[in-house]
Write a structure and sequence with these properties.
It is found in: Cell membrane. This is ComEC family protein. By secondary structure, the protein is an alpha/beta fold. It folds into five domains: about 5-70, no CATH class; about 75-175, OB fold (Dihydrolipoamide Acetyltransferase, E2P) (Beta Barrel); about 180-450, no CATH class; about 450-490, no CATH class; about 500-740, 4-Layer Sandwich (Metallo-beta-lactamase, Chain A). Helix 8 (about 230-245) packs across helix 15 (about 385-410) and helix 12 (about 325-345) packs across helix 13. The chain is globular, with a radius of gyration of 29 Å. The two termini are about 50 Å apart.
C-alpha cells in the first residue's frame, strides 16, 4: 500500500471534523472502527482504502469526543482535581492541565484556563496543586465572519475555564523551562526590544505591546513573531551543520550518515520543548519527524508527497489541529511555495550573487503575496500591500541575523560568560531596532477586503495555470467568463427589496444593526473594557466584512455596555450622525415625538419625554422602526417603571412584529402590560453566557413564550438576523442554522444563562 495514498486517505478522513453538525455517538464510532478494520483486511485497493478512511474518521471523531467529554461531565458541580500549571498569564490567570480527578489519573490531561483567583504563594509553570474547581465549558461569542473563539479553544485543547475555591500546593518546584524563562526575562528586561526578543526566542508574546503587534500586522510581518517552522528548522540546521562538519574529521565507521539528520531532529524537539511546545512548534516537530522518516527510507520523494505525508502525520498526532487556523496558514503557505516554484520558476540570471539573491527573494515574496491571498482574506479579512517591501528586508534580517543571535544568546545564557552574552544580546537588540525603524517608515498598507471579493483572490492561481497551459488561447471564452464573474461586485447592484435587523453577539451588552441597501443604522454599540471595546473587536470587522457602511448610530442610554464602542465607530466613520437622549454636543435628540425617514423606513421615538429627561435604564431611548407592514421595537434597558409611564400615554403605537427584550431579559423589565401591548411574534435577547446576573430571567422567558413570542437569545444562537420582505419575515440563527458545527454547540449545563 502506497504511503502517500494512505496519507491522502487520512487527510480526507479528518477534514469532515470541520463541517460535521454533530459528532457521532461512541457506539457509532465503535461500529465505524470495526467496519473499517474488516474492510481494510480485504485485498482490493478501493475497499481497503475505504476501510482505512473509516478507521481514520473514527480516530478523529474519538479525539473530538474526548475533548467534548470534560465539558459535558466536569461542569455540573465542584471537582476535586490535581492540576499542573502550564503558563502564568497574570496574577489571577493561569493555563493549567487537569492531571487527576478524585485521586485518579486523567489521560489525556484536560486543558483548563483558571482566572479570578490569586494563589496563596508564588506561582510558576510546572507547579502541581490540589484544587477544588468550579468549571465551565468554553463558550465563545459567534458572529458571521468574526473570530471563532470556541473553535480556537478546542483546537488548543483548552475546553474548560473556571475558578478554584480551595488550593493546596503539592509540588512547589518550577519546571526547568519556567526557571530558564524567568532568568532570561530578567536579563532581557534591560534591552529596549526585550519583549520582542522573548517572543522570537521563546514564543512569549504576552509582553509584546499592542502597538508593536499592530505594526507587524499592518506590514505583513506578524508571521515572524511566532515560534514557527522557520525558527525551529533554523535551529535544527545549525546542529545539522555542526554534526556534518564533525563527519569530516571522524572515521565513517564511528558516525553514521544518519547522525546529522537525527541530531538536527533531536535538537528541534528540544527547542520546541524549551519554547513551551506551542501548537505551531509541535506541528513543526511532527513534520520534521515525518521528513526524517522519509529521508531514512532511502527513496526519492516529490515535494507534494512530502507535503501530504507531513500534514497526515500532524492530523494523526492531533486530529483537532484541523480546526486550527495556524495549521491552515502553514499548510497553505508550503503549498504556495511548491506551486510557485514549479509553475513560475525563479529567473536564472548571470549577475553577481547579491543581485541574484535579491531577485530570488523578490520572486519569493511576490509569489507569497499573490497566492496567499485566499487564506489571508478568509482568516484576517485583509492583506498588507506593504508586506512585499517589508518582508524583503524583514525576512533576511530576522532569519539570518536576529534569530541566530537570539539562539546564540539563549545558549550563552546557560554558560558563565556574561560579557559575551551581553554583547550578543546587544547585537540582537540592535538588529530589531533597525528592523522596526524601517517598518515605521512604511505607510499603513493594510487593505481590508470584504467577502464579496473572496473568489477574486483565486484569480492569481487561475491566471498562472491558464498562462502555463495557454488557456487564454485554447479557452478564451471560459477565461473571460471567469474574470467577469469574479469582478461582479463592481457592477452588481445591491438588492433594494426588503431589510434586515441583526442582533450581534457582543456578550453582556447590546449592538443591533438595521440594514437596507448596503447601509446600516446602529442601535447601541456594545460594551467596552480596559484596552478595547466591542466596536474594535466585533462591530467594525463585521461591518467591513459584509460591505456595510453605517450612516448613523442611535444610543439608548449612557451605560458602558451600550455606549462602549461609540468612540471607535466615530473614529472609523466620522461622518455618522448620532441620536441619543443624553443631550451631548453633536448628538441629535432621541425623545418622544422625534420622527424621521431612512431609506423607506420610518423611525419614531416613543421614550423618554423631552420635558422630563431621565438618566440610566429608564432614560433609554425606545425607538420603533417600520416599513408599513412589519415593525421592530428597540427598547434599550428600559425597566418596569419606565414601561408603565410609556404605556400610560401612547400604548397603541407600540405594537410591533419584533421586540428587542429590554435590559437583557432582566426580571426588572418586560412587564406583562408591555409584552401584551407589543403583541409581537419574535423576542430577541442580547446577553452573555455565564453573566453574574444570570440573565435572561427564566420568568421573563416564560412570560414571552406564554404570549406567543419566539424566544431567541445570543448566548444560545450567536448572531441573530431577521429578514423582512413583502412576503413576510425569516429568522436566521448563526449557531443553529447558518453555521451548525459540532464545535459551536452549547456544552455544559443546559439551562446556564440563556
Amino acid at each position: 500500500m502506497r504511503l502517500t495514498a494512505l496519507a491522502t486517505c487520512l487527510i480526507l478522513a479528518i477534514l469532515p471534523l470541520l463541517w460535521l453538525p454533530t459528532l457521532p455517538a461512541l457506539p457509532l464510532i465503535q461500529a465505524i472502527a470495526i467496519a473499517g478494520c474488516l474492510l481494510a483486511l480485504i485485498r482490493h485497493d478501493i475497499t481497503r482504502y475505504s476501510g482505512f478512511w473509516l478507521l481514520f474518521f473514527a480516530w478523529g471523531a474519538l479525539a473530538a469526543q474526548s475533548t467534548v467529554w470534560p465539558m459535558q461531565n466536569l461542569t455540573r458541580g465542584p471537582q476535586k482535581a490535581g492540576i499542573e500549571i502550564v503558563a502564568v498569564e497574570s496574577d489571577t490567570a493561569y493555563r493549567a492541565r487537569i492531571i487527576q480527578l478524585d485521586g485518579k489519573a486523567v489521560v489525556p490531561a484536560v486543558g483548563v484556563t483558571l482566572y479570578g483567583n490569586t494563589l496563596p504563594q508564588p506561582r510558576c509553570a510546572g507547579q502541581r496543586w490540589s484544587m477544588t474547581l468550579s468549571l465551565r465549558a468554553v463558550h465563545g461569542q459567534l458572529n458571521d465572519g468574526g473570530f471563532d473563539s470556541q473553535r480556537y479553544a478546542l483546537a488548543q485543547h483548552q475546553p474548560l475555564t473556571g475558578r478554584f475555591t480551595h488550593a493546596e500546593v503539592k509540588d512547589a518546584r518550577c519546571s526547568l523551562r519556567a526557571r530558564y524563562l524567568a532568568s532570561l526575562t530578567t536579563t532581557l528586561s534591560a534591552y529596549s526590544w526585550g519583549p520582542v526578543l522573548m517572543g522570537l526566542g521563546m514564543g512569549e508574546r504576552l509582553a509584546v505591546s499592542a502597538d508593536v503587534k499592530d505594526l507587524m500586522r499592518e506590514t505583513g510581518t506578524a508571521h515572524l513573531m511566532a515560534i514557527s517552522g522557520l525558527h525551529i528548522a533554523l535551529a535544527a540546521s545549525v546542529i545539522w551543520l555542526l554534526v556534518r562538519g564533525m563527519q569530516f574529521f571522524i572515521p565513517v565507521r564511528w558516525m553514521s550518515w544518519r547522525a546529522p539528520l537525527v541530531a538536527g531532529f533531536c535538537f528541534a524537539a528540544f527547542y520546541a520543548w524549551l519554547t513551551g511546545m506551542q501548537p505551531p512548534a509541535l506541528r513543526t516537530v511532527v513534520s520534521l519527524g515525518a521528513c526524517l522518516a522519509l529521508q531514512l527510507s532511502g527513496r526519492l520523494w516529490s515535494p507534494w508527497q512530502i507535503w501530504r505525508v507531513c500534514i497526515a502525520a500532524i492530523l494523526l498526532a492531533d486530529p483537532l489541529a484541523v480546526l486550527s487556523h495556524s495549521l491552515l496558514l502553514s499548510a497553505f503557505a508550503v503549498a504556495v511555495l511548491i506551486f510557485w516554484y514549479q509553475w513560475v520558476p525563479a529567473p536564472r540570471l548571470s549577475a553577481p550573487w547579491a543581485v541574484r539573491a535579491g531577485v530570488n527573494l523578490l520572486h519569493l515574496q511576490l509569489g507569497m503575496l499573490l497566492l496567499l491571498l485566499p487564506v489571508q482574506i478568509v482568516v484576517f479579512h485583509g492583506f498588507s500591500l506593504s508586506s512585499l517591501v517589508a518582508n524583503l528586508v524583514a525576512v533576511p534580517l530576522v532569519t539570518f541575523i536576529s534569530v541566530p543571535l537570539i539562539l546564540l544568546g539563549m545558549g550563552l545564557h546557560l554558560l558563565p560568560w556574561p560579557t559575551m552574552e551581553k554583547m550578543v544580546w546587544a547585537l540582537a537588540d540592535g538588529s530589531l531596532s533597525l528592523l522596526f525603524r524601517f517598518l515605521t517608515t512604511l505607510p499603513d498598507g493594510w487593505i481590508t477586503v470584504d467577502k464579496r471579493w473572496l473568489w477574486l483572490t483565486l484569480l492569481p492561481w487561475g491566471a498562472i495555470v491558464a498562462w502555463r497551459m495557454r488557456g487564454a488561447r485554447t479557452y478564451p471564452v471560459v477565461c473571460v467568463s471567469v474574470l467577469v464573474l469574479a469582478t461582479s461586485p463592481l457592477w452588481r447592484e445591491n438588492k433594494t427589496e426588503g431589510w434586515a435587523v441583526h442582533m450581534l453577539d457582543v456578550g453582556q451588552g447590546l449592538a443591533m444593526a438595521i440594514e437596507r441597501q448596503g447601509r446600516v443604522i446602529l442601535y447601541d454599540t456594545g460594551p467596552a473594557w480596559p484596552g478595547g471595546d466591542s466596536a474594535q473587536q466585533l462591530i467594525i470587522p463585521w461591518l467591513r466584512w459584509h460591505h456595510l457602511r453605517p450612516e448613523g448610530v442611535i444610543v439608548s442610554h449612557d451605560h458602558l455596555d451600550h455606549i462602549g464602542g461609540l468612540v471607535s465607530l466615530r473614529k472609523a466613520w466620522p461622518e455618522m450622525w448620532i441620536r441619543s437622549p443624553l443631550g451631548w454636543a453633536g448628538h441629535d435628540p432621541c425623545v418622544r415625538g422625534e420622527r424621521w425617514q431612512w431609506r423607506g423606513l420610518t423611525f419614531s421615538a416613543h421614550w423618554p419625554l423631552a420635558t422630563t429627561p431621565q438618566r440610566g435604564n429608564n432614560g433609554s431611548c425606545v425607538v420603533k422602526v417600520e416599513d408599513g407592514t412589519h415593525s421592530l421595537l428597540l427598547t434599550g434597558d428600559i425597566e418596569a417603571q419606565g414601561e408603565k409611564a410609556m404605556l400610560s400615554r401612547h400604548w397603541q403605537y407600540l405594537a410591533s412584529t419584533l421586540i428587542q427584550v429590554p435590559h437583557h431579559g432582566s426580571n426588572t423589565s418586560s412587564s406583562l402590560p408591555l409584552v401584551q401591548r407589543v403583541g409581537g411574534h419574535i423576542a430577541l435577547v442580547s446577553a452573555s453566557r455565564y453573566n453574574a446576573w444570570r440573565l435572561p430571567s427564566v420568568k421573563v422567558a416564560r412570560r414571552y413564550r406564554k404570549e406567543g413570542y419566539m424566544w431567541l437569545t445570543t448566548p444560545r444562537s450567536g448572531q441573530l438576523t431577521v429578514s423582512f420582505s413583502q412576503h413576510g419575515w425569516q429568522i436566521h440563527s448563526l449557531r443553529d442554522q447558518i453555521l451548525p458545527r459540532w464545535y459551536h454547540q452549547w456544552f455544559g449545563a443546559p439551562g446556564d444563562n440563556g
